[in-house]
């Protein structure tokens, strides 16, 4: 707390505390003299003025705790103290006139306060609403109109201060000697009679205040608009109270309740808007108030219209039934349309179900992931009337709607617990996204994330199938080329040599023997080529010995004086051929990388089959991989082999060595490996 604020804070507390004995005094007087003195100018009962002023004084005292210098604090206090002055003055005048014959000191001053200060309450309220919520006008050009409006209001108050008491209290309940006319002007009665319409000036000034409020609301930023919504809510409640007062049966009780509630709602709205508006979401309250307020007006209007129209031809009971029937039929559509309109005004969007349904239709019509992202951005942007929306997914794909903004709300989204992207949204100027909006956005984003992810998975599956088909075709082409260009000519040459040896066998046995020796060498080479081709299709060692033994034999080829390779592999059971081949080739490539890049002295190859997963780890104690080192075709190939079978491969490298981890599902696959 700022030390310089203490005097202001103490003053606010002192004024609020003084209102406590004043309240007790007024209640005591009203209890003893419930009828008052019969004067039209003095309030009876006086406690209703205190009931109107108490919320303002209490709100001012609470606001002074944190904001003793805020203009709203003292405008609230001025409004509340004005009401207290009227109530205390009326009570004291009643006590003096009804209980002591008017002989108490300051009776005339009390009569003047009780009968003439009332308009000051309206003046304080006007200033309060005009400068709400920050104590400033919307702009400099509003200074002259605001000044003229306040001057007009002050003029009305001045007229009520200077009008002769005999015109305010024509019944003569106050003795002439006690009539308070310290400021009365010696003007003709005709002039004072003409001023009876001056209170209408207050109405026009309230219209100007409404114009400033509208200007503030549509020109305010998100923070200030959140404050103004509280006063908008108070205005809706005031309208409902005024409407209820007009249609309710005559009686003092409802009138008092309506008056006190109308005074309290403004004070509470100012208090919350200035100090605590961030803690509460007013959109729900305001939306419901506007919804049912407009529905009430429309329903009453429809009912009256039907009643008057039908009543011209039928009896009143029939007309009433007809009006009720029309209202019952129209209530549902009216409520739906009004609800949508209220949502559009307050939040910039329609009903949550409508948004989700609209997005679902868009997603069903789109199959391209980029088009899906564009639809998500478009639907969110238009539904929330945002100035900018951008949807990004991991992998580089993104789509934007609107013009880029400096600041935007960042909402990450996930699919089945895995982060797959984020949504950036910048609300339109002067608005903010409340908690309900953010929850709705989260639901929309989750729905879109599932669609985007499923479409991406479909594309990945299609791409995988294309790679598989392409790999099979390339493998067949390579095999055909090897057989045609290598094995084919070798066998053709072998046939020619065999024919030559047969022809020379009788004439030149020695030469025929040399040709047969060459033929043996050619056939041995052709057999080696054939074995290599078969090995490329699938290592024969897997079928001969099984995966565990095949890995041990493979590791023996890398084991030597400089690198010790240990294999830890148990029984693998019956694994699909594609899984065995993928594990075998990944292990071979990983061991090859250890020899080429790791400069390691020891390497451990572990194979473990648990449940539905085949786990392969190749760990060395080398120096680790520098950035980019070893991440070439070999690593890409290992990852592709694991991914083709629905698995994954990761590499962890550090100062203590490098570990290649492959995890492949142990499900049967009808497709054999293609590498």
Automatic annotation (TrEMBL):
SUPFAM superfamilies: ATPase domain of HSP90 chaperone/DNA topoisomerase II/histidine kinase, GAF domain-like. Residues 578-668 form the Histidine kinase/HSP90-like ATPase domain. One of its GO terms (cellular component) is membrane. The chain crosses the membrane at residues 12-30, 50-67, 74-98, 110-132, 144-165, 197-218, 230-248, 254-277, 289-312, 318-334. The keyword Transmembrane applies. Keywords: Kinase, Membrane, Transferase, Transmembrane, Transmembrane helix, Two-component regulatory system. Gene3D superfamilies: 1.20.5.1930, Histidine kinase-like ATPase, C-terminal domain. It comes from the Bacteria. One of its GO terms (molecular function) is phosphorelay sensor kinase activity. PANTHER family: NITRATE/NITRITE SENSOR PROTEIN NARX-RELATED (PTHR24421). This is Histidine kinase/HSP90-like ATPase domain-containing protein. It comes from Actinorhabdospora filicis.
